[in-house]
Hints:
Layout: H1 2-10, H2 16-23, H3 25-89, H4 93-116, H5 119-148, H6 151-251, E1 255-259, E2 265-268, H7 271-275, H8 294-309, E3 314-320, E4 330-338, E5 346-353, H9 355-369, H10 379-395, E6 399-407, H11 410-416, H12 419-436, E7 442-447, E8 450-458, H13 461-474, E9 479-480, E10 485-486, E11 490-497, H14 504-520, E12 526-528, H15 532-553, E13 556-565, E14 568-580, E15 584-586, H16 588-598, H17 601-622, E16 630-635, H18 637-641, H19 645-656, E17 663-668, H20 669-673, H21 676-688, E18 692-698, H22 705-710, E19 715-718, H23 720-724, H24 730-745, E20 749-752, H25 758-766, E21 771-772, E22 781-782, H26 783-792, H27 795-802
Parallel strand pairs: 11-12, 14-16, 16-17, 17-18, 18-19, 19-20, 20-21
Antiparallel strand pairs: 1-2, 1-5, 3-4, 4-5, 6-8, 6-11, 7-8, 9-10, 13-14, 13-22, 14-15
Helix pairs in contact: 1-6, 2-6, 3-4, 3-6, 4-5, 5-6, 11-12, 15-16, 17-19, 26-27
This protein binds ligand C2E and calcium ion (CA) (2 copies).
One calcium ion binds near residues 696, 697 and 753.
Amino acid sequence: MLSRREPGFDEGDQASPPLLHKIGPASARLGVFGLAGVLVVLAAFAFSGALATYRAASATRAANEISDGFNDAHLAVVDEESLERKYRLEPAPAIRARHLAAAAALVAALERVRSKGTEEDARIVDSVLALHVAYLQAIGRMFAAVDAGDAALVLKIDGGEVDPSFDAIATAVSTAANDHHQAAVQLLARLEETDRNVAIATPIAFALGIGLIAIFGLALRSYRRQAQRAVAREAAGIRLSEQRFRSLVQNASDVILVCSAGGAVIYQSPQAESAWNLAPGGLLGQPLFVAFRVEDQAMLRDTFAKVESAPASTRKIELEMAPGAKDWRYCELLLANLLDRPGVHGIVVTARDITARRAFEQQLNRQAFYDSLTGLPNRALFHDRLEQALARSAQTDDRVGLLFIDLDHFKLVNDSLSHGAGDEVLIDAARRLQLCARSTDTVARLGGDEFILLLANLSSEREAMEIADRVILQFQAPFRLKEREVFVTASVGVAVGRANAIPADTLLRNADTAVYRAKMAGKARRVLFEDSMHIDDLARLELESQLRRAIVQGELRVFYQPIVRIETGAMLEALVRWQHPTRGLLLPAEFIPIAEETGLIASLGLFVLNEACRQTMAWQTRFADRAHMTVSVNLSTRQFQEPSLSADVETALSESGLAPSSLKLEITESAIIRDVDAAIATLGKLRKLGIQIAVDDFGTGYSSLAYLKRLPIDALKIDQSFIKGIVNAQEDTAIVQAIITLARSLDLKVTAEGVETAAQSALLQAWNCDRGQGFYFARPTEAAAITRLLASGSAASVRTEAA
Ligand code: C2E
Ligand code: CA
Ligand code: CA
């Protein structure tokens, strides 16, 4: 970031050369080299013209000299001839001497030719000299004949030898002279032409040269102008960039400071005063460090020293401002060592406000590690704390404990009241758990209605159980919601372990297993994990696979328990049993929960439905007086939600032939409450088939009159737990009486469940309760036993025998 400002800050003058360099090195180079090139070409041109002229001239001169040499030789031989004739007429020694001189002149002329001429010329010279030697010998003999006056011999020698020799020599030399003369004439013509060419070309070449010089000169001039303009532009750009830089520095939200080595502030941008709430003059002259929180100053000093010691280095650091720094709380500093930089000579510190970013980071952190509803640590943070606690306990002899807390019936609150009410309960539950925790403990929400209390530094299991008791106690008080008060108890699973002995995951699983036990054992209690519980888990797994087989292999039985219309017995409730191959007859409590969890309940339920319909039809057919006998079949929550439910019921009826009015389905209050509107729709569909509906275990859920009125149902079954108390407990008496009155007002039949004594039966009869069901009348029993009872006669006998 800082590097972008550099040109504006201190490198203004140095910035131009690179730019000039950019705009025209090519044109400048072209100008200079062009000019030099033209001059060199012109000089070369002039030199080559002169050379051509010189060569042509010297060749012409050489040709002329040789031609002259041969001509001289010709003249000399002609001289010899005439002197030879003269000696014949006038034989005087002077004439012979002149003849000898002429012969010598011939030889000299030929030797001149040899020295200047070509090889061809030398050959001609050699042959002429040979002819001349023969001529001179012949002349010698002829002159002797002249001296002797032997005219006949003279004539003979002259005609036979001298004249032919003379003719041959004269012809040879005159021919050669002529040839060379011709060549000289030709060379002269060429010389003239060269001269003419040079004369024409020279002005053209020079004109072209001057033109080129002008062009290159212009190019150079334009290059210079361009360069000047570029320099001006660059200077303007630098001024602009500097202005921009200044306005940036002065108006940026960042605070910019320049410090001397050692940390004293020597420049500060205007924001420093306003953003950091400084007195006029701000930090000028003071150490930079004082602007920051005391705890952070050492770190800043350290960073500053590092930057100062390394030229051109930069470093970033995040700090908290000293108290009183107006809007800024957290700040990011970028320190850059520009001590070597001309125009700066300092450590430039750019400070940026990161308060908002920090807040956002903290919020993200909260979201990642904290539950938004309760503000408690979430599962991720809990895991982290658990690992830490285990690691710490490895050093000490302490243990780590987990309380796994699951709210009882929380789903009911959520479903029957509202999610808002559910949230209120969770928030208050979190508060209550925090009351139980010690300062070293962590309360976390794992999700839904599951909480965990991590107990660090635990001395014993007993200590953990005591805290668990406190939790149970905390949940005994009602939750006061906006709309109403509700009771939500807590089940607590306790697991205690030591580091090295147990991994975190296992400890958590143990606590989970223990809480499951607490729920199974009736909720609102705490259970300490024991190793045997895992064995029980295995047993559960085994039971599940066995149940699968049981359904297929026909190990399930349906028992029937009469529902006594107090005076006549015409109704039965079908209750499933499992004839286990090794463990004997099992009650529903031992396998229905597993069937629910695994989905096996669908086929199990179907089996009971079909079997109950078939059996009841068989009894109706066999016993004429039982033609209107009805059978009640229990539906689990899951079965009730099954989309195929009414189709399954229709099939069961049509396959067995049982009249719909003979079948009653029992559905628990909690199954209905999950989704009242959907329940109303399903119940309506079943009732259209002609089937009766009873609400089972009535009174245990969050019964609300409002929805009860809307339900298409025929009967209520008061839960056993209330019947137990009607003889002694006033509260139960009030509840049971209220339910009976309610049922009457809604025109519903009412059955009391779990009637065990004559006293209970008498009371119920007195309160006009329509029907009773319980061990006092009859225990659930297998179909064959019912058949025997029916065969033997009355409802009374049903009671007597079964009881
Ligand atoms: P439930 O529908 O409330 O059935 C009545 C339970 O009370 C039966 O227990 C019955 O044996 C017991 N009981 C009847 N009279 C008395 C009495 O005087 N005193 C006492 N202490 N208990 C009495 P059981 O057969 O063990 O069944 C338990 C639960 O299992 C049933 O409660 C029902 O919710 C469920 N269940 C049974 N059969 C089926 C079935 O075929 N399908 C489904 N989905 N659930 C079934
Ligand atoms: Ca029932
Ligand atoms: Ca019941």
